Amino acid sequence: MSYQVDEKGYYGEFGGAYIPEMLYPNVEELRSRYLEIMKEESFQKEFKELLKEYVGRPTPLYYAKRFSEKYGTKVYLKREDLCHTGAHKVNNTIGQILMAQKLGKKRIIAETGAGQHGVATATVCALMGMECIVYMGEIDIDRQAPNVARMKMLGAKVVPAKSGSRTLKDATNEAIRDWINNPVDTHYIIGSVVGPHPYPDMVARFQAVISEEIKSQLQEMEGKEDPDYVVACVGGGSNAAGAYYHYLDNPEVGIIAVEAAGKGVDSGESAATSALGKAGIIHGSKTLLMQTGDGQITEPYSISAGLDYPGVGPMHANLYTSGRGEFISITDEDAMKAGLELAKLEGIIPAIETSHALAIFESRKFEKDDIVVVNLSGRGDKDLNTYIEYFNL
Amino acid sequence: MNRINKKLQEDKKLLSIYFTAGYPNLGDTEKIIEDLENSGVDFIEIGLPFSDPLADGPTIQESSTMALKNGMTTTKLFEQLEGIRNKVEIPLIIMGYFNPMLQYGVEEFCKKCQKAGIDGLIIPDLPVDVYHEKYKQLLEKYGLRNIFLITPQTSDERIKYIDSVSDGFIYMVSSASVTGSTSGFGEETKAYFKRVNELQLKNPQIVGFGIKDRETFEQATEYASGAIIGSAFIKHLNEHGTGNIASFVQNVKALT
């Protein structure tokens, strides 16, 4: 059994394309062409060159000595925080903008929550000289002013999503509506491994460079390609999908997914989708999602704006229900402490999303010789205000 | 015979009206249905509100948000529809997104529809292939017609496929848009109506999206069997409440 997508676009029972007919031509065009385009030599060449020269890949795999000593195991950090724009998100936007060009699209739309994906999209649009419209919840626009300014500097138009709860899920709805209204010239750059097939698979493939690099780097440093565990935080789950990708079907490698418990899984203010979600349909994908008994999608909560998505990518829903992945949820408090700890032990200030993944070592114990790779998905610059307020810095 | 199929045999241009259940007030469902029937409307689409209606524009989304705030749920809607067949004969179609139906249990949902006298469903985010593979038999078991959408971007081949799995009518979306966002039909749209008309489908087509008054109704039905009004009716309810439904309908269509 494989944990990769099947030919119909499903991961086990999850995935598929539950989309209105108005979206069918767009999604079908992408579905029928994405694999063939990604295989083209010219595409691969350009993608790899940009990742190397523009994004700064390969990112280091760093042995975190002091952190490892503290927790009595061998912890490696995959430094996605050193990517241009500060997080792994750009791997996907580089891939998708090249895809959009191959498809002959002239106009790019995207959704964003905290603004990281919006910035990564605006960045590649500037790079390619393409029109860029980013939908962002009205509430998030207020909360994330620096990223709104970044997008504007990069030439993007930021459109407030004023419907529903005015956050990420509503920004996604608005982006999808834009795509319905502009079916011919527009490509929608989804920011995570969510949405209708082929998006979860396509985004995972663009992020797969993370685990591809881990393999060769670990080979060099440890004399073997496979760690004992790969750990990543999961909101929609794109950094996790990239970090797991080449290990999904290798049972020797443990997969650990870390979700945001918010104020506690049972507090009513949480984003722990695997624990709290039920199978359903969100943004065109069958997956686990947080919803009322009546099937209305609910608003999650996490101190980290990148993890408060009410759904999770279908790959991860399948990893959870099949038991292939070990799912752990971490509260705001434990994540914040872990972020501060990494700063003090290793001189690296992580994004709060990533801090969730780092926090598991307090309770999840590993063997002394275990090799544990944590995907350090983003840097903490964008979260400074939250850190300042939380710790009275 | 299913009321939808029977209605489609009538020799006139059919008017279908959409409203969101639970809007403007939670208890308005029955009155709106009765008034629409009495005003000479031919089909009614009862919108089951959803938190994230992707295919709808702001007007219908806002009415859905309000309906949910008012306390509308799937269970509540079926309660409200319990005695409706003692009062009206008009074909009733529930239009809703798939997730609330999934959570209710698709079979249970269909069973309740049959019990209430619902004739068909429109589920915009249930794609035709998934329907065909997994749910067609279930809907048929409970006497429900499933209505599919087509758009100007839908290929002839796919339109024919949709026609082959449909029994009732085809919901012809007038333009590439979400609901409530167009004004009038251009030459391109008319050419599309004509193209679909010339495919000689077994199911009649009813046009939706962008119809709001007599002029757009007449344009839309030149090549189609009827037309659907949604957002414009919601706007009317928003401005005038439920007291004035007949006049809205008369502005669109002379009583036949």
TrEMBL record, chain A:
Catalysed reaction equations from the record: (1S,2R)-1-C-(indol-3-yl)glycerol 3-phosphate + L-serine = D-glyceraldehyde 3-phosphate + L-tryptophan + H2O
Pathway: Amino-acid biosynthesis; L-tryptophan biosynthesis; L-tryptophan from chorismate: step 5/5
CDD domains documented for this protein: Trp-synth_B
Domain Tryptophan synthase beta chain-like PALP: 56-378
Modified positions (N6-(pyridoxal phosphate)lysine) in chain numbering: 89
Keyword Transferase attributed: no
Record flagged with keyword Lyase: yes
UniProt keyword annotations, A-Z: Amino-acid biosynthesis, Aromatic amino acid biosynthesis, Lyase, Pyridoxal phosphate, Tryptophan biosynthesis
Cofactor dependence: pyridoxal 5'-phosphate
PANTHER family hit by this protein: TRYPTOPHAN SYNTHASE, TRYPTOPHAN SYNTHASE-RELATED
NCBIfam families: trpB (TIGR00263)
Subunit structure of this chain's protein: Tetramer of two alpha and two beta chains.
Protein name (Swiss-Prot/TrEMBL): Tryptophan synthase beta chain
Organism encoding this protein: Christiangramia aestuarii
UniProtKB/TrEMBL annotation, chain B:
E.C. code: 4.2.1.20
Catalytic residues (UniProt): 45 (proton acceptor), 56 (proton acceptor)
The entry's keywords: Amino-acid biosynthesis, Aromatic amino acid biosynthesis, Lyase, Tryptophan biosynthesis
Cellular-component GO terms for this entry: cytosol
GO molecular function (one): tryptophan synthase activity
Reaction equations catalysed: (1S,2R)-1-C-(indol-3-yl)glycerol 3-phosphate + L-serine = D-glyceraldehyde 3-phosphate + L-tryptophan + H2O
Gene3D superfamilies noted in UniProt: Aldolase class I
Top-level taxon of the source organism: Bacteria
Alphabetized Pfam families for the sequence: Trp_syntA
Keyword Amino-acid biosynthesis: yes
Pathway participation: Amino-acid biosynthesis; L-tryptophan biosynthesis; L-tryptophan from chorismate: step 5/5
Enzyme class: lyase
Quaternary structure annotation from Swiss-Prot or TrEMBL: Tetramer of two alpha and two beta chains.
Homology family: Belongs to the TrpA family.
Role summary: The alpha subunit is responsible for the aldol cleavage of indoleglycerol phosphate to indole and glyceraldehyde 3-phosphate.
Official protein name in the record: Tryptophan synthase alpha chain
Gene coding for it: trpA
